[in-house]
Structures are given as structure tokens and as C-alpha cells.
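Q: A reviewer asked whether we had any structural model of the full assembly, not just the individual parts. We don't, so I'm hoping you can provide one. Inputs are below.
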Amino acid sequence: MIDGIIQPHDTRGDLRLECDVVVVGSGAGGATAAAVLAEAGLRVIVLEEGGWYPTEEFSANIPEMLGKLMRGGASTVMVGRSPVPYLEGRCVGGTTVVNGGMCWRTPEKVLDTWVRERGLAHLAPKALEPHFDAVESAIDARYQDPGSEGGVNDRFKAGADALGWKLSRNKRNQRHCVGSNDCVTGCPTGAKRSTAESWLPRFYAAGGRLFTHFKVERVRTRQGRATGLAGTILDPVGARRFTVEARAVVLSCGAIQTPLLLQRNKLCKPCGHVGRHFTIHPNIKMAARFDTPVDSLRGTHQAWQCMEFGDEGILMAPGAIPLAFMSAIFPSFGPRLAERLRDYRYIATGGILVDDHAEGRIRALPFGVPYIRYDVTDVDQSKFVRAAALMAELYFAAGANEVYTPFHHLPVIGGPDDIAKLYAHPPRVEDTEYFTAHLMGTCRMSAHPRGGVVDPNGETWDVSGLYVADAGTMPGTIGVNPQVTIMALARLIAVRLADRLGRKVPAKIAQVAGHAAA
Amino acid sequence: MSSDFSFRGYTRRVARSVVDAMVPRWPELDADLTDAVLEQVEDFARNYPPFIRFGVMVMLYGLEFSGPFVRDGLRPTSFLDREAATRRLEKVADHRIPQIRMMVMLPKIMVSFSAYSRPEVEAFLGADRRAWRANRKAFREVLIQLDERRAADPPVPAPLVGDAVRPEDYLRFERT
Ligand SMILES: Cc1cc2nc3c(=O)[nH]c(=O)nc-3n(C[C@H](O)[C@H](O)[C@H](O)COP(=O)(O)OP(=O)(O)OC[C@H]3O[C@@H](n4cnc5c(N)ncnc54)[C@H](O)[C@@H]3O)c2cc1C
Ligand code: SF4
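A: Here is a predicted structure for the entire assembly that you could use as a starting point for your response.
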């Protein structure tokens, strides 16, 4: 056993475990909740379907890493008017191992809406502030070391500055992110403070134990109360079974897997909200070619975001990605793509995220097949068209000579005068390539049993002792990167759960050993 | 968990022809990537859930028999020469009906991820990731050693580096 991590080869036969709280999933929500509960003195177990990979195992072999770290080897795609590929981490640390590390608090205006329109008074900005402070301190949400930004970020900033557009500096959960630009396949330098490097070491230190390759399939209930879990140990030598008995069960499998698990167990049906209200912050990728080298190999993934058009629900940002990922954002292949990527060193990449107003849906079909549907709306599409035009303007202002879009009928914008073509023949949803990394809202928190899946404490309205602490609980879309929101909500849920189980979370806020607290 | 999946028989021929039509080639780079990329594509598929693998098969066979959809005759794609196969798949990719375009989507991503993450391709295009990663790891070790001389970290959100490294040198570390 390494630290608190128990892998299949550490155990034999079928297993029966018992604890105070069992948490399913070790990503943003699960690891945070588990650490807080363990530090409150409860006996906590985390069950994680994926494996554990220490920093040394994050190799430069992209296909291999995608297979190890991502659900379905990164093949996941949701259906809709245009299919939207998405990624889910499946490893110790969950999606925080493969994410970009940007750290944003939930905007106050969003929290105010949750208070005003959804009656969730405990989510008021002031009430959540201690949770945000604790989270940011625990994960080292810091500004980049100056000079680590690199060409992709510099060009974006030059364009925004030239146009006088407001830029915000990203905080990222990192300690000396040295700009290796490999965030999506696991940080090879150990800089990124995924939950595997931040919350989970605290969890182990507080006596918590994490079991890898434990796939939870059943939530056990007795008389309307959750009593534990059961599932399969994905041991490469041969699958085995496990059961866990616990006083409380916390599901933190992410906004897609948690509703699927609930549906497969026919739980929480009466509320009617499981798997609904699915929001994804759909995004599109843009790129631009310059006359001088950008060298996107060098520099951090994303140092700034442009909030100038935030009121319209548009967020633009640079996004440095490895060559293999850059190859995937161009719709071509073979000789056409080879010619385009000859200029690799001169190309900068970026993305546009739209604060969506559509809601998708998740349903468990027979034979374990998930049905994930999201239709980008025409209203959101018109935002994308405007945002693509703005981003093209930004790149041309930075000196680009060509801009590449994800629109099939206008993949290249040859110069500033061509931007108008976007408005003249606006691309349809069906002719646009999207992507998403933010999956939210499918088990939303509500003040009333008819309004959502979990109550203000994170406990499901329909099954007592069953909690959800992941991106699914978000009561609505937030327009910024979600991991800090997810962690803050998970912390709030865990503090309240500890209290109910007769334990108090230590008063000091989230002090990381040897680091100054905020 | 990965399976022991591999392309077999006629399916292998179909998959190979799609890979062959999609891999990049440059006259200056003396490397035929087709078979190596085909193996990587198989590795990818091994990690896919069965229903996605089934979807990949459907797309590959869709491309094999896509001639009539793009007015390119009836010959299966794997019976065309490489240039003709590439031209046909480009027509599919440019098709005005999104459902037809979708046939190239996943195979294209699998081939591009595999081909453009190969060390020889990365080096050829000026993206020597392996060397850069080694450089960054070594540089970060230096920064960590500098940190150890400090009593406490600056509170979040301050950057950690202080003025120990000049910004213009940050991405230009040379190992001494
Ligand atoms: C490429 C990418 C970049 C991103 N960049 C950012 C960013 O810069 N900033 C930001 O704020 N957010 C970012 N995100 C989003 C953010 O990482 C996620 O929103 C967040 O991690 C979700 O947290 P979660 O707890 O809901 O789920 P996850 O972090 O996905 O964790 C869920 C865990 O549950 C496990 N699990 C699922 N089902 C089971 C089961 N049945 N049994 C056992 N275990 C199970 C999974 O294996 C996984 O480890 C990014 C996401 C991606 C994909
Ligand atoms: S850019 Fe590189 S060093 Fe920085 S967090 Fe990402 S992977 Fe780690």
C-alpha cells in the first residue's frame, strides 16, 4: 500500500468494508468532501473506478495517457444537432488530473441569482467566502510565475491590449507551472495541484483510505435510507466483488456518471430531475497563423481570459495545446492537414466558451449504454458567431495573417475584411464543431423537493443518507471554469454532513502543511 | 479496462486504407507512418467501450462504401490508390450533410492524435515535446530548491517565484 492508496494487488478475494462515510469518485467534488470529512475525525473510504498514476508515470505518449486517464480512452461524445466530444477523467484525482487548472470563483451575480431565484440563501457570496478561501489555499490557486506564459498567451494579450479589451489574469492551481503545455495528459512536472496532489494527501494523512479500480454499481438502501454500496473490483487478474456499509454515502462520480448510477439503481425517481438540466458551457476552438514563430510548445496552457464580453455570455481565451490536440481542431486530414501544420510553430490556438441557455439530458439505456444529449440552440449559436468574429478581430489586431474557425463553410478567414462573411452567412449549429470540458447541473441543488435532486445540505430529497457532491449539484450554469465552485460546494456539503454525524470540521481554514493560510 | 481487440481480416484492410489516406506525409520526412499509426489506432480502440468500438466499425465501413454518397463510383475505398482514397474521404469530410461528414470524425481524431504525437513528426514540425518536458522538469527542480530556502510561501494567489528568475529567462532554461 502506498500512502492511503489501496490497489487491487493489495487485496485478495471479495471484500466487505465498513466505515462512517463512503465517497464514490476522487475528482474535484469527491476528494474535497473526503478530505474535509476525514479531517473532522470520521472514518472515510473513497472508491475510485480509475487507477493511480504518480507524476513519473505521466509519459509523453499521448494515446497511452488518454487510455489511462480518460473514460473510454477519450472517445466520449454526446449526441445532438451537432455531436459534442467531451472528456471525463477516470483516475485517482478524476478530471482535475487532466484539466487546465484555471481557478475562478463563482461570479457573485450568479450566486445572487441562486439565492434570489432558487431560494438557496446559504450560497450567498458572503456565506460561500470561507469555502472559496479554504479551497484556493488547499489547491494553491495562484497567478503564474511571470515569464511562464509563452507565445500563445502573449499573442492573445497583444491582440486584446491593441483593442483595449479587458483581460483577467487566471489563477491556476499550480506550484511553479513551468509551461510544459501538457496539462491534458497529466502534468509531467508535478506543478499542477490536482486533487491527487492537494486534497487527497490530506485525506490520507487524516487516516482516509482510497481504493482504486473499484467500480460502484449498486447503491444499497433500506427503508428509504442509503446503507452502503456494492460493485466490482476491476482487478486485471480477475474481476471481484465488494460491498461497503456506511452511515452516509456520497456520490461524486461527476455530472454524467452520478445520474447514470442513480438511474440504474432506480433511485431518486420521484423528484424527476435526475439527469436533467445538463449544461455544458459548449466551446469552439479557434486558431491563427502569424508571420513570426509563436512556439506553442513553450508556455502555460492559459494565462488570461478576456471578459470584455462577459455580459453577453462570451468568454474568450488563449489555449496552448500539444501538437496532437492542435491537429484535431482542424477539420482536415492527410495532405491538407500536413500542409497546414507545416506552419505549426507559427500557429496560436484559443477557445471561446458560451454561457449556455440550453439544457441537455442524460439517460441510462439498457446494457450499460449511456444516452447523453445536448442540442446547441440557435441563440447560443449566434453568440458563437459573434464571438468568433471578435476573436478573429483580436488575432488580426495581434498581427495574424490568417484565422481558422470551426465552421465548415468558412474554415479560414483570410483577413479583417473577411470577418463580415461570418455575419453574411452565419454558420449553422450543424456546420460547427464544438467541444466541452464542463459538465454540470444533472443533480441540481434546490430549496424545494420539487425543484431538484439534492437539498441545500447535498442530501438527496428522496433517499436519506445519500448525498451528491460533484458538478451535478450546481444549480445552474456559471460562465466560468467550474472546479473551484464544485470544490466549494463539496466542502460546504461535507462540513454540514460532518456536523450531522456529530463531528466538527477543525476551525482553522484549510491549512496545507508548511504553507501560509489565506 | 482495455480489451484484446484488434482489426482482423477484411476489417483490417478497411482500417488500414483509411489510416493510409489520413496520415500526414511530407517529402522532407522519410517515414511511412501508416502501419505504426494503425497500431496506435488499435490501441485507442482497445480502450473504447464496446458500443463506441462498434461505432468506429460502422464509420470505417461507412467510409469503405462511401463512393455513392460522394458521386465517386462504387469501388470500395480500400481498392483505390492512396491519392484517390484521400480525395474520396475529403469529399466525405466536406459533404453538406452533417451525418455523412460524421463518418470521418472519430477516425480522423484517432489518426491525427496518433500521427501527430509520434516523436519523429513532433521533431519534424518543431515540437520536440520529449526534450522540452525534460528541460521543464529540470528547471522546476531548480525552482523547488530555491523555494526550500524560504521560510514560508507567499499566501495565495501570489506567484511563487518572486524575483529569483527574470521573466525573460523563464522559458529559456539551459541545463548547466
Ligand atoms: C480537458 C479539461 C479541461 C478542464 N479545465 C478546467 C479548468 O481549467 N478549470 C476548471 O475549473 N475546470 C476545468 N475542467 C472541468 C473540471 O475539471 C471538472 O468540472 C471537475 O473536475 C468535475 O468534478 P467532479 O467531481 O464533478 O468529477 P470528476 O473530477 O470527473 O471526478 C469523478 C470521479 O468519479 C469516478 N467515478 C465515476 N463513476 C464511478 C463509479 N461508478 N465508481 C467509482 N468511481 C467512479 C471517476 O473515475 C472520476 O475519477 C476541465 C475539464 C476537462 C475535461
Ligand atoms: S503547463 Fe505543464 S507544468 Fe504547467 S500545469 Fe500544465 S502540464 Fe503542468
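A: Points you may want to mention in the reply: Chain A has twelve helices and 22 strands. Residues 509-518 of chain A have pLDDT under 50 and may be disordered.
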